[in-house]
Design goal:
It comes from Eucalyptus globulus. This protein is of the alpha/beta class. It contains 18 helices and 22 strands.
């Protein structure tokens, strides 16, 4: 007993010291970011802004300008240049010079960069969310959930565990190399490129940037032409934080443009990360094959939301609506197919309808609305076409949400939340990614049927399974072919930034976040060295030295059996033969002892 007391006292003292250290606030400097051209006395837009009418049916590529406007009001925000191939090559070259300096930075310096960012984000949540809302049409609550919380969680995880997962990792050396020490080392790849989508303009920039910079890389990010205004403002935050820690100029860059800009980026970087559609993802892969660089693709999803008969209907219905209307009807890993057990189908649809009936869509900064605008021009027309196809094939609308006060110039940017039943998998709505606030519901009778329906899709990003039995829900989720599964919850995986995020099939491959996402930013190098150098050095056994002895192969046979034989006695007999071969002064051939 006396032996344990000192250990217990030391443990308590250590815990107390750690607790007291936590009470001491870290010394994190504040940064100043120019907001004069994006904020006007806290209002939604400048009074002198005008309504922008984007050209329909064609891109702005020929104009060499990326025009920006608020999708919820159509108020003009300005424009940014569409960079040419030569301009992109120059930006990447500057980032490459900066990376060579940053690769030598300490983890202490990198952590300070993260702390500065975290402090700014926490202190300026409203500003960040308002910028996202204005540029994409989402509500402030959706921006907080999808932009702020996920980014803060990623920064916190990197601060806590990032260095640990980038240090050399020692591995077993196996039987034949027991005298060796084996390890995996992680080095920066160089310049990473990211082409990101518009639906989470803040997080989609910060997510790849944080992993790239913390692992010693530089990164050039092409923001979506639908969210360039917000992306270029968020870039100022990154620049200010990098300057505060003395990082080299041009370590991180944000570029704007269209297809030509993206193609040039793919051609010049050491790895490309893409978030977007399967069609563009295939083109990215084709372009990346020319230089044989690694690619990570996140190409959207058609997530299944499975509801068993033993659930709390009112609770799961509320989660279902949040899952379907996630990010103001701009789904990102959002649920798009709802499968409900036949025994609770009616009650679930009734409860779902009550919630959807209360949902109001409108300009998110002009009033208290549950849902914002559709960001991409003409997308509401595509949603209506998907809905019409389903109705033509026998589906029917259960209920639709309502609109608030919409300006006549922005009517096309809104789509009401819609519950639709009697759907089946012949309908485009159940096969194509909708990216909109539509809740199609199907019945199922058995767990096996639910799994079959969920797997009947070209996509494989995520799923959510709800049951009163956690064991049952886990069993169903384990059979669904996807990269992300939530049991009795939805989208909680992305708040666990220690976990990798990504899909299979047309949802892409590769992973963001977690250890896998962090190390994917690295050159993974296998290293083997002598364990007891210089006392024990590797020498080639005499029988297989050049010129190879006549009994060279017999020596190898015995060595293999001695190392890997299944029977201990056979291995010992083989070891005796190995020793005989090694001790033979005239290795012309030794008969094996059986």
């Amino acid at each position: 007993m006396a032996f344990w007391w000192p250990l217990l006292v030391l443990a308590l003292a250590y815990a107390l010291c750690r607790f007291l250290l936590m009470l001491i606030p870290p010394n994190v400097p504040s940064i100043e970011v120019d907001t004069s051209d994006v904020v006007d006395d806290g209002g939604q837009a400048r009074d002198n802004s005008f309504i922008y009418i984007p050209p329909r049916g064609r891109t702005q590529q020929a104009d060499r300008k990326v025009q920006c406007y608020e999708p919820a009001t159509m108020k003009y925000l300005g424009y940014f240049p569409a960079l040419t191939t030569a301009e992109v090559e120059e930006r990447v070259a500057q980032a490459r010079k900066a990376q060579k300096i940053w690769a030598k930075s300490s983890f202490k310096q990198r952590r300070q960069f993260l702390r500065i960012l975290l402090k700014y984000i926490i202190d300026h949540q409203e500003l960040i969310c308002e910028i996202s809302s204005r540029d994409t049409g989402k509500t402030m609550v959706d921006a907080s959930l999808g932009e702020i919380m996920t980014t803060c969680e990623k920064i916190t995880w990197l601060l806590s565990e990032g260095e640990q997962w980038l240090k050399p990792e020692y591995r077993s050396s196996g039987r034949s190399m027991i005298h060796k020490r084996s390890k995996v080392e992680f080095y920066p790849l160089g310049v990473l490129g990211a082409i990101v989508s518009w639906n989470y303009p803040f997080h989609n920039i910060f997510n790849p940037m944080l992993a790239a910079v913390f692992s010693g890389n530089s990164i050039v990010i092409k923001v979506s032409e639908h969210a360039s205004w917000s992306g270029c403002f968020y870039f100022r935050i990154i620049q200010a934080a990098l300057t505060a820690v003395g990082a080299p100029e041009n370590l991180v860059d944000v570029i704007t443009g269209f297809a030509e800009t993206g193609e040039a980026l793919v051609s010049t970087v050491d790895k490309i990360i893409f978030v977007g559609s399967p069609g563009v993802g295939k083109m990215i892969m084709s372009k990346a094959s020319e230089t044989l660089i690694p690619v990570t693709l996140e190409l959207g999803g058609k997530d299944a939301f499975i509801v068993c008969e033993d659930v709390d209907v009112s609770h799961v219905a509320q989660v279902a609506v949040r899952a379907a209307l996630q990010s103001s009807g701009q789904n990102c890993a959002g649920a798009e197919r709802f499968y409900v057990h036949k025994d609770i189908y009616s009650s679930f649809v009734t409860q779902l309808s009550k919630i959807v009936k209360s949902v109001t869509a409108g300009p998110p900064l002009a009033g208290k609305y549950d849902m914002g605008a559709i960001c991409v021009q003409e997308h509401s027309e595509r949603l209506q076409n998907l809905l019409n196809d389903a109705l033509d094939k026998g589906a029917n609308i259960v209920i639709r949400g309502s609109f608030g006060n919409l300006g006549e110039d922005a009517v096309d940017q809104f789509f009401p939340p819609t519950v639709i039943e009697n759907v089946n998998h012949t309908m485009k709505l159940m096969q194509e990614e909708a990216f909109g606030p539509i809740i199609p519901i199907m019945k199922f009778s058995t767990d096996e049927e639910a799994v079959q329906l969920a797997n009947d899709s070209n996509y494989g990003l995520g799923c959510a399974v709800f049951s009163g039995s956690q064991k049952r829900a886990k069993q169903i989720a384990s059979q669904i072919h996807c990269g992300v599964a939530a049991v009795n919850d939805f989208a909680s995986n992305y708040m666990c930034q220690s976990l990798p995020f990504g899909g299979v099939k047309h949802s892409g491959f590769g992973r963001f976040a977690g250890v896998e996402g962090l190390r994917a930013c690295c050159l993974v190098k296998s290293v083997v060295e002598d364990r007891w150098w210089p006392f024990i050095k590797t020498k080639i056994p005499k029988p297989i030295q050049y010129p190879v002895a006549e009994n060279g192969f017999e020596f190898q046979e015995s060595l293999v059996e001695a190392l890997y034989g299944l029977n201990i006695w056979d291995r010992l007999r083989a070891l005796v033969n190995v020793l005989k071969f090694l001790s033979d002064q005239h290795p012309s051939g030794i008969k094996r002892s059986d």
